[in-house]
Write the structure tokens for this entry.
Amino acid sequence: MQINLKQFQAADLLCIAIALLVLSPWVNGPAALVIGACLASFGFTPKAINIGAVTKRLLAISVVGLGFGISIDQAIEYTQNGFGLIVGSILFTLILGTIVTKLLGIERKTGYLISVGTAICGGSAIAAVSPAIKASSKQISLALATVFILNACGLFLFPVLGHLFDLSQSQFGYWAAIAIHDTSSVVGAAAAYGDEALTVATTVKLARALWIIPVALLSAVYFKEKDGKFSFPYFIVFYILAMLVSNYVPMFNSLYQGLFSISKQLLGVCLFLIGYGLTAKNMQSTGIKPLLLGVSLWISIASASLLIILAYY
């Protein structure tokens, strides 16, 4: 159950009211994230609303809606062009993560989850791989907190750096999709940079997210947990279906563009809800070593991918 009406309090009503405001064009993604973090810091966290479940559902819906604005020809082009970059970045991050985890003396599964979250798609990858390696709740929360802090930083930092390095729309889309953790922040940062960047970033990021499947299976073998399970991100299937419908049933193009626009606004609501997890308590819970691991991996993959993108894209 995502919403419990019997436990409704002022904080819940405030959350709903601001979420509706964020749906308007007056509040952008970064501002929405800050608002959510401020409310949580002052104790206005909803009690009757399951923030995590609602965010996950809205994010999936909004990403599917973005599919209505994607050209299949462009999607094939971006995915083919970025295939080597995607695979190379995942392998590079996982190998480097294993090495740095040992050097810092971090617990093995915690370090691996942080590496997987950095390599593929943040919290979604951590949630999918955790059952495969039978990680404990502490290991999972520590990895999620580390990745989440850096993911939130990426939402604000990357558009600024993109302009600083004078990246084209396409270049920034590739960079955001490779170097930012969660889909929500990838899309949020890309949307702030431009429509073409959003198209490239969304397509490449979702192609990258598909690697959850083989990585989860290999993780189960790596940690000798042969009965491990993983969660398949089904919204990717619906995203592809939305692309197919909008490209091959073009007579409803105005409807598709409307759904695409609504989906972009809905992403702002997702960022607002994600902001509730960005509190001082969560930041302290990460500890210094896991955070050092997360930062080192993030800087490494961001720097390496940027150099490759500047040279070849």
About this structure: The chain is about 75% helix and 0% strand. The radius of gyration is 19 Å.
